[in-house]
Model the fold of this input.
Amino acid sequence: MTSQDSLQDLRSQIDVINMQLLELLSARARVVTEIGKVLTELGSEHYDPSREAQMLTALELANKGPFSNETIKALFREIFRASLALEESQAKAKIRVQRKSADERTIITLPDGVTKIGDGSFQIISGPCAVESYEQMDETAAALNARGVKILRGMAYKPRTSPYEFQGMGEEGLQIARQVANKYNMFITSEIMDKSQIDMMLDYVDIFWVGARNMQNSFLLRALGKINKPVILKRGLAATLEEFMYAAEYIVSSGNPNVILIERGIRTYEKSTRNTLDIGGVAVLKLESHLPVVVDISHSAGRRDIAMPLGRVAKASGADGLMVEVHPNPAVAMSDAKQQLYIPQFNELMDELDKYPIP
Ligand code: PEP
Ligand code: MN
Done:
């Protein structure tokens, strides 16, 4: 056999081995996909470093050369990396809140059959930070109603930073909110702190509200997935958009498709605002998800003097609405006194927003 013939023969052997390797890699990838499905069902992390270390040790022990252990480990690490990417991309493709086509959108219709969120309108969600009295709610609601606002904040449980600060009026606050909303034909949204409150709150609220601090309370999210009222979900204080969307997924995958996302600013090093409004995040959420997105111009700012520019930005961003806190006398408000708008300021904001079309 000439050298040329033997080279040809050796290369043919390599071609065959390549095909065998390809088949084995593909078979391995199919098993990995199955594992990925099980992990997703179990709600477990796809990346398991201890399992990876165990496989590398077994390969090292079995390796008889000619490749060094380091080379074998590097090659297999590459296979593990590709497998993990495959598992994750398959898990993501199945996410319900992910937009599957450009025109897919979730439209939420409120009990009057007319008020909608996510239909291309720009909804205003407003009211005081917290219910403090009947008079305070009545005065606020009258002003909001005069500007066509349909969704009223009726916050009765306040997740305050300090346990010594005003914690909300509790069920009495919900009773006031409901009474006032009925008077003006408005809808109540109110924050729920714990799943044990669902049954009681069902009597009072039209839209449940999960605050930033509870965004990753998966037990609460799952329980809200079982009710037939819409849920507002706020982005966590330091949550990535991926974590935010997964939180919404808990509700939607548990059976409730009517989720509204609120961007409320994230923690950054900047101190001049309470949080940093992530307007880029709003654009990404609108692109990646079919759920309605609302911009909170109050908690993202922590101050009322920039409500006007933030309101303009919110409307121009392509969001489905804006959330703003309004109080008849913010100076004496029991919470968030620095950011709640005076009623005349709210009216100026509405006048300003009326000048701009919905993009
Ligand atoms: C709120 O909007 O009432 C609130 C408490 O805000 P966050 O959960 O975003 O801090
Ligand atoms: Mn507030």
Observations:
- The first helix runs from residue 3 to 42.
